[in-house]
Design goal:
The complex is a heterodimer.
Chain A: H1 2-18, H2 35-38, H3 51-61, H4 63-66, H5 84-87, H6 91-100, H7 115-125
Helix pairs in contact in A: 3-7, 6-7
Chain B: H1 3-14, E1 40-50, E2 58-68, E3 73-84, E4 88-100, E5 110-121, H2 141-144, E6 148-162, E7 165-176, E8 183-194, E9 211-223, E10 226-227, E11 234-243, E12 248-257, E13 265-275, H3 278-285
Antiparallel strand pairs in B: 1-2, 1-13, 2-3, 3-4, 4-5, 5-6, 6-7, 7-8, 8-9, 9-10, 9-11, 11-12, 12-13
Classes of the chains: A mainly alpha, B mainly beta.
Chain lengths: ~140, ~290
């Protein structure tokens, strides 16, 4: 029985690696978007084709830290965008975070991208598949 | 370098998959968008002055290294030079500038503080910013190079993104410690917009999204010895930028002189190449794990 538990624990520990997730990512609890932006709808929500442009923008501007798959493995402390803690945030919150950045964690502001382009990135983020794994606290 | 090599280099640089233009098209005006942390942008630009009677045509190239120290702090190092027809070519000095963005979030108006130290001689003609009175363009380089120009320059940069437009204004205060010119003032204003606001999924090179255009107006405002537009150089210049590849941008600006002390026409062109993750690559060389 003990052996079975050990094997199960080992498999559980390897699961994040198998899923390609960054378990070193620790969400910044102080990085909160204002409540007013939470319900802001994505103006491109009905234009799913725009996610292709979002992918291109993501690869150019975000993949350096978040990896091309969004799992943040390139730089160990970058956010794993596949995690539920990220994916459960509303479109408006993700848009706000891309726009403003989090300078204390070296996440730059991407306000240099056009507003619709930032929404395109949000659209693309929704195509990344979330997993059930929670971040390490 | 032979022409064949130049053409090969151009073809190679253009062969990189293209993406949308995000670099500002401005040459003189700064906006509030900082270099991303750890990225190094290498840029070569040139100012080409079409002279008035009695003056000589000149071209003033410079190289610029822009590094994102943090998300709020960008540092730049310049090396300036110039060549004047029927005169000569020379290295005119260096500049070190730092930009700091005090506010962490995006606001309606975003201020950036700018501080620059210049160690140049008076033969410098890149005119990256114009402050004080108009430069004397009729003196030969042999005279101008004798005059040192050690200057501390500060700017208040105010910039705003309104819908798809960027509006930016820079207010310059400069003090030359080598000469008694008082404290000099200058300004620049600019607005720009990309030609398309939605990125296409394709890697197209000539898509509208790869281009941005705008207008800059800049000039001197005299000094504490005489404030105002009198005897100053003033320019209005359309600007256009083209993201030729994922990392590279070409810029062009044909400026028009608005006063008699200005060059009638001032052409500017530049090429920039961004090396992403430069800081972490260098850190890795020295044994850092990150």
């Amino acid at each position: 029985m003990r052996r079975l538990i050990l094997v199960f624990a080992g498999l559980l520990a390897l699961l994040p690696i198998a899923l390609g997730q960054n378990m070193l990512y620790w969400p910044d609890p102080t990085w909160r978007a204002p409540e007013s932006v939470a319900d802001k709808p994505n103006p491109l929500a009905q234009k799913r084709w725009a996610a292709a442009g979002g992918k291109k923008l993501f690869l150019r501007n975000c993949a350096e830290c978040h990896d091309k798959d969004g799992n943040g493995l390139v730089k160990k402390h970058s956010a794993d965008l596949l995690l539920p803690v990220v994916q459960q945030q509303s479109d408006g919150v993700l848009f706000w975070k891309i726009t403003n950045g989090n300078t204390s964690r070296s996440m730059p502001s991407f306000s240099k991208l056009q507003e619709l382009e930032r929404w395109q990135i949000v659209l693309f983020l929704r195509t990344l598949k979330p997993s059930e794994q929670a971040p390490k606290q | 370098m032979s022409w064949r090599r130049v053409i090969l280099w151009l073809v190679c640089s253009l062969a990189v998959p293209s993406c949308s233009a995000q670099e500002s098209p401005y040459f003189v005006t700064y906006d509030h968008h900082m270099e991303e942390p750890g990225n190094l942008e290498v840029e070569t630009q040139s100012t080409m002055g079409i002279p008035r009677a009695g003056q000589h045509f000149y071209i003033a190239p410079w190289v610029e290294f822009e590094y994102g120290v943090t998300a709020q702090w960008t540092s730049e190092l310049y090396f300036d030079s110039q060549a004047t027809a029927n005169d000569g070519a020379l290295f005119t000095g260096w500049r070190l500038e730092n930009r700091y963005r005090p506010l962490k979030r995006e606001h309606w108006i975003n201020p950036v503080l700018y501080l620059e130290y210049e160690n140049l001689n008076e033969a410098d003609k890149i005119q990256k910013e114009i402050e004080g009175g108009a430069p004397d363009l009729s003196l030969p380089n042999s005279v101008l190079r004798q005059e040192q120009d050690r200057e501390l320059e500060s700017k208040l940069i105010l910039s705003s993104d309104v819908h798809d437009w960027n509006l930016a204004g820079n207010f310059i205060v400069a003090k030359n410690f080598s000469q008694s010119e008082g404290v000099e003032f200058g300004y620049s204003f600019g607005f720009s917009r990309p030609l398309a606001t939605l990125a296409s999924g394709a890697n197209c090179r000539f898509c509208r999204e790869n281009f941005s255009a705008g207008l800059e107006v800049y000039g001197g405002l005299g000094s504490t010895l005489g404030f105002g537009f009198h005897d100053t150089a003033q320019y209005a210049a359309p600007v256009i930028a083209w993201a030729v590849s994922d990392n590279a941008t070409l810029r062009f600006s044909p400026g028009v002189g608005l006063t008699h002390q200005s060059n009638p026409v001032l052409f500017r062109f530049g090429y920039s190449y961004e090396i992403r993750g430069f800081g972490s690559r260098v850190a890795h060389l020295f044994g850092s794990r990150q």
